[in-house]
Structures are given as C-alpha cells and as structure tokens.
Input
Amino acid sequence: MFRILIVEDDMVIANAMKNCLNQWNYKTETVVEFKEVITQFVHYEPHLVLLDISLPFYNGYHWCTEIRKISKVPIIFISSMSDNMNIVMAVNMGGDDFIAKPFDLNIFLAKVQALLRRTYSFGGAMNIIEHNGMVLNLSDATLEFNNAKIELTKNEFKILQILLENIGKAISRETIMTRLWESDSYIDDNTLTVNVTRLRKKLADMGLSDVVKTKKGLGYMVE
Output
C-alpha cells in the first residue's frame, strides 16, 4: 500500500485529499506540526508527498529542499500560487508536478496515480526500496544516500534487499542463505559472514553505520 504524506495547513483541503485517497486504498498521514515536517517525513517514509507552498513557519520550497537532501521521493506541489514563476520555481526546487488550487478531485487523483505509476511501476512491480533516506535500486543493484551512490555485489544487494523487505524483523542466516541459493551463486555460512561484513563496511563508508544489526540467536535485521 502506498503511503502519502499531506503537508497542507488548510484542514478542509487536507481532509478532502485524505478522504479521496483513502477511498482508493492509499494510506495517508497529514502534517500537524509544521515546524517538524522533516521529522514526520523520516518517521512515516512516504512514497509521495503532497506539498503546499504557503505554510506556517517555513514555506513549501524550504521543505522541498530539505526533503531532497535525503530522498528522491516524488513531490507534488499543490497551491493557489499558480503563476508561471511559482510553477517554474517548484519544478526547479525538485518538485515533480504542480496542481493549482482550486482543483477537481478527479484530476487530483489522476495526477497522483500517474506519478506513483511512473515512479514505482516497472512491469507492475516497485523498482526501489526506500528506508530512512537510503534508496536501494532493484533494477541496477545500487544504493543511494545523501547524494552518494554505490554499486553492490550480487550477494550484498540480495542480503540488503531481504532485510529491507522485512524491516523490524530478524531474518535467520538460514533463510538468507536459502534465498541466495535460488540464484546462480552458491553461498555457505562463512561466505554469508564475509558478505555481511563487506556490506556493513560499504554502508558505514556512506554514513550508514549500524544499519544491519545482528540479533543473537535470531539472525540479522534492519530497524
């Protein structure tokens, strides 16, 4: 289920968007503390952000810039400030689309669905996994974080994919090895240890220390 974060201080508009999206089985959350948008963004890990320009404390351009420092998540600006200058600025700041207020909910929904489809669908499946600002690209086995990008070996990639698909769950070494045996490379217990060690070093070099945790007697996990 796609998670959508709504950053809109007009609660009538925010609730209208929320109700519309919920009817189509999207999971939504609305920001209420407008000084803490990034905190809520990181905690919620949305697949899409709906962002107003005129907000309390800091405007939408500020928050778009802050989000772009840690994530490539798609952002749709939604604002009555829909002159050409603001539309161009929204795109240049990192926005992916712009919806002018007032808007028709059917057009709003169509734009949301189109952007989600373009971003996440490839052969009907999501081709990235995002967690706490790091983005694992399933199509080319690369990992991105804070504007840095690295390539992972086949085994490193598969191990991280398994753990990110099971956030908060300890995955046994046996389960991981079984998943890796399904590919064309055999991996035993010692090889798994070596690959996990190398993966942890690559993560640490990117500023992602202690991401892959060892749970004694259980296996590995990402929280």
About this structure: The domain at 128-222 is CATH 1.10.10.10 (Arc Repressor Mutant, subunit A). The chain has a mean pLDDT of 87. The two ends are 20 Å apart (CA to CA).
